[in-house]
Structure formats: C-alpha cells, structure tokens
Amino acid sequence: MANFGIGLGAFMDGFTKGANLRHQWDDRKDRKAAQAEDRAYQRTRRERQETLDARSDDEYERKKKERDAIREVGLGAKREFDEKVKAGELKEGDFGTFWDENVIPRLAKPYLEAGDMEGARRVREWGESAAAKRGGQYALKAMTLAQQGKLGEALTAAQKAAEVRGYLNHGFSFGKQEPIQDQDGNVLGYRVHMTDADGKETTQDVSVGQIPAMLGTFINPEAAFNTQIAAQTANAKTEHDIATYKRKKEIDRSYADPQKARSSAVNALRKRFDGTMDDQIFDDMPAAKQEELIKRYMETEMGRPVGLAGGAEKPAIAQPSAPQPTAASAGRSVVVDKATGQPVEMTTSAPAAPTAPSRAFAGAGGQSTAQPVGQQQEEPQEASTEQEAPAQAPVGGSGQVNGVQVDDLLTRATRALNAGIDPRVIAGQLNRVGIPRSLWPAKLQTGAYGDVTRVSPGLGG
C-alpha cells in the first residue's frame, strides 16, 4: 500500500512538471511572436520616417534652389538693367517696364516649374502693383551694391525698400545704421536700429560678411512677396475667427434661456429707472411702457431680437392678461401669488352673490402663497348692512356653503393667517363666502389681529 502511495505521488509530480514545461514553452512561443511583431512594426516605422525625411530633404533642397535662383534673378536683372541703361537702350525711368517684362516672368518661373499655378498667378498679381515695382527697384539696387562691397549704400537702399508700403510686410521700421569699427578704423559690420509694430526699439548687429546674404534673403522680391502672402493669410484667419465668434454669440443669444434674458433686462431697467434722477420708477410704469423698454433694451443692449427662438414676448412683471381695470389702477391694494407671480385683483364694487374662495387660500395642499404688495392699502370699508345676507354655514362647522367644503376653507384660512396674509382680507373672504363668525379661526375671533369687524370686501372671486 505504501508503494502504491509513493508511485502515485511520483506520477503526480511528473505530471505537474510536464504541465509547467508545456506552459513555459507556450509562453516563450508567445513572447517570440510578440517580439517579431514589434520588430516588424518598428521596421515599418523606420521606413516611413526615412521616407518622410527624404521628402523633407528634397523639399528643403527645392526651396533652397528656388531662393538661390530668385536671388540670382534679382541680381542678374539689375545688372542687365544697368547695362542697358549704360548702353542707352533704357532710361532709369524705364524700370517699371523692365520689371514687368523681365523680373516678374523670372520670379514666376520656379512656381510654374513646380506646378504651382496659384503661386505663379499671385506672383504676377503682386508684381503688377506700383509698390512692388518701386520697392523691387530699391531692393535690387541694394543687392547689387552689396555684391560690389558698397555696404553702407546697400543698407541705405534696403532701408528705402523696406519703407515702401506694400512691398515688405514685416512690421518693422528701420532707422539709422552705424558702422562698427575696430581700433584701426576698419569696418567690421553695421548696427541697424529698428522699431517693431508695438513701438519697441531694438538694434541688430550685422557683420560685413553677412550683409549680402541678409539682403538677398530678406528684401529680395520673392521674400517681399512671401511677407505679403503671410500677412494676407493672417488677416484672413483673424477675420474668419471674428466672424465665427460673432456667429456663435448670435446662436447663443438665440437659444439662451428667454426668462433669464428678460429677467436681466428687467433688473437693468429697474436700476436705471430707480427714481433718483426725477425719473419714474420702472415698476410704477404702465405695462405697455414696460414692454416697450424691455424690447428696446434686449434688442440694443443685449443684441437679442425679440421673437427669435426662446424670445417670445412675456410680461416683464406680473400683469393681468386682459386690459381690464385692476386693483392697482384703481388705487387699491394688490395681492401677488408667489407661486405664479400673477397679481390677484381686489374687487372694486360691492360684493355680489357669495362665491368660492379666491387665491387668498390658493395653497390648499400647503402654505398659502399670496401676500399684499404695491401701493398703500386703502382704508377698508364698512361691511354693508344693506347687502343681501350670505348663505350661512351649518352650525357644526361641516358641510358645504356655495359648493365649498367648510372645513377645508377654515383650514386654508388658518394657513393663510400663519403665512402673513392680511387678517382683514381673510375675514372679508370668509364673510363673502358666508362662514359665520363663530366658526372663524380663533385668532380672528379673539382679536389677536385687532378689530376685524371693519373688513375689506376681500378678494374678487
């Protein structure tokens, strides 16, 4: 039996080792496959990068050849023009014609050879301008003088070329140039004074050997043309960004919360018409006048045309929907419902037949939401003894009066008292509905709010 146990253990040990070897072999196989895949990926990336580098080198060499060719075009054209002037074939005033017939075609040639028809067209358009001709004449003269070793005169001509509006567009204006000399008086270079577009003055020291290359690089006609194209591109981008920003702002205004926009307008108008400068207070203005001011403010100050999406007209402050006489216009008190923001009209005539309770008890399920605001409340009138006696509620305080549940009405009256509603308004309402005084809330019966026997007519049904 013991031998059987030993044999079984040896078998399981061998089985486990074999399984582990199998797993290790699978892991090595997976790692080799992953490494081969990574090597292939890295090889592809290197090949792509080498291709991109080769293209970049070719483009750099092409641009360099173009610049060298264009610089030689300028120098050769100037030499050719000077030779024809000396020979009497041309005059100094004929440079414009010479420019059109000789310089511009040579400047456009590299673009045509590269297949850049748009670039060639823009070169021709720019070259036909008076600024290009005048500035180009100074630039070619400066380049020729620099080649002849007349560096001071070359810098002066270059300065004149840079001052021609429409030739170079680099944002700098050039001032005087001072020679830099050693102890023996030999000229080592020149210090050029410049002012940038922001008015900041700066200086640039240029050695004698750098001047010809600098002039040939920065003021030759092709370089001047590129500065104009760069400036036009920047201006177009700026205009596009401004137009995009304006469109976004218009869209934001069109879809903004209309209530928020109107609230901002109302608040601004309330501050403007606050009565401090003998102006009428905004809230005291007629509704039509308020609406006119709000429309004008939203259209002119906020740039929000009334009537766009979300711009439907709404009253600035709570106003009756129909043009009927209101309690405010009659000089009576106004009660505003906090939940709806609408005024609840006070009755202006003797109470008619008893009606259901008004908004004074609107919060049937919770706290009453009405409160008196506006003008000073008029002294309540005596309850008329000649009026028809209202229907009386059942003695037990239950049942209905004019279709209104008495218990519910008394509960709402108590809540209205706790909410701060004028007790005289509540008493008037209870009286109109026909609730006996003996059933009124205890605070009204005990005189905690003063004498409420002189009640106001209450709220209009």
Entry summary:
Residues 26-66, 305-333, 346-401 are annotated as: Disordered. The protein is mostly helical. The protein is built from twelve helices and eight strands.
Task: Describe the protein's topology.
Layout: H1 2-86, H2 95-113, H3 117-127, H4 130-147, H5 151-163, E1 173-181, E2 187-195, E3 201-207, H6 211-218, H7 221-255, H8 258-272, H9 287-300, E4 334-337, E5 343-344, E6 370-373, E7 400-401, E8 404-405, H10 406-418, H11 423-433, H12 442-445
Antiparallel strand pairs: 1-2, 2-3, 4-5, 4-6, 7-8
Classification by helices and strands: mainly alpha
Overall mean pLDDT: 70
- Radius of gyration over C-alpha positions, nearest whole angstrom: 47 Å
Strand content: 5-15%
Strand/helix succession: HHHHHEEEHHHHEEEEEHHH
Q: pLDDT below 50 for ≥5 consecutive residues: which ranges? A: 308-333, 345-359, 363-397, 455-461
How many beta-strand elements? 8
The figure for the number of domains is: 3
**Bulk shape:** flat
SS field, number of helical segments? 12
The proportion of residues forming helix, as a percent range, comes to 40-55%
Give the terminus-to-terminus CA distance: 107 Å
Structural description of this entry:
This protein is mainly α. It has 3 domains: 58-228, no CATH class; 256-319, no CATH class; 335-372 and 389-445, no CATH class. Helix content is 53%, strand content 8%. The protein has helices at 2-86, 95-113, 117-127, 130-147, 151-163, 211-218, 221-255, 258-272, 287-300, 406-418, 423-433, 442-445; strands at residues 173-181, 187-195, 201-207, 334-337, 343-344, 370-373, 400-401, 404-405. The strands form 3 sheets. A 3-stranded antiparallel sheet has the order 1-2-3, covered by helices on one side. Residues 26-41, 47-66 have a biased composition (Basic and acidic residues).
